[in-house]
Specification:
There is one protein chain. 21% of the residues are buried. Strands 1, 2, 3, 4, 5, 6, 7, 8 and 9 form a nine-stranded antiparallel beta sheet that branches. This protein is of the alpha+beta class. The chain contains five helices and nine strands; from the N terminus they run αββββαββαααβββ. Helices cover 20% and strands 35% of the residues. It is elongated, with a radius of gyration of 19 Å. The protein has one domain: Pnp Oxidase, Chain A.
Length: 198
Amino acid sequence: MRPEDSLPEILAHAWSLLVRGGADRKSPVHTPVIASVDADGLPHARVMVLRKADPAAATLRLHTDARSPKVTQLSGKPVAVLAYHPVEQVQLRIAGTARVLNDDEVVNGFWDQSTPFARRCYLAEHPPGTPLPGPTSGLPAWIEGQQPTLEQIAPARANFATLWIEVTAIDWLHLANSGHRRAVFRSTNDWAGEWVAP
């Protein structure tokens, strides 16, 4: 039996792509598409940075601005994640439930792990999506192109939040000239997989 014919090995492979995506900024899985639906039933999709994938807990962690409209769209709601790895020729479609955390010690720890330059974007003067009179980064003029000090960046902490996705299903599709293969995995108490038509 080839590894790609074994459902347990395929599930392990899918999670390994996600784990690498969270750890390696050069991985194409590092920037998946996160999709949600707003209160009016309209779809929204955006590229986000995957910070960590935890197979044991079946979670994905991303970071976001706590003021962003997507926080309301995502928190406590179903979410879809799409990632594609062109070298592996694998598409991952993931379903789960999102939750947003902003104010606990765990989130403080993730904030502290980020570089001051990475934290700088949370100094934006307006929430994401705010209409503006012209093109701008949204950052205050005094910090444009500058490396902030820890003291300067401290007020931005209130705008930083973590987005957690509790994964409930993974749809794995391998594209190949010899024939595509597809498997779907769902989590109840344990992961169960089945082959489906590509």
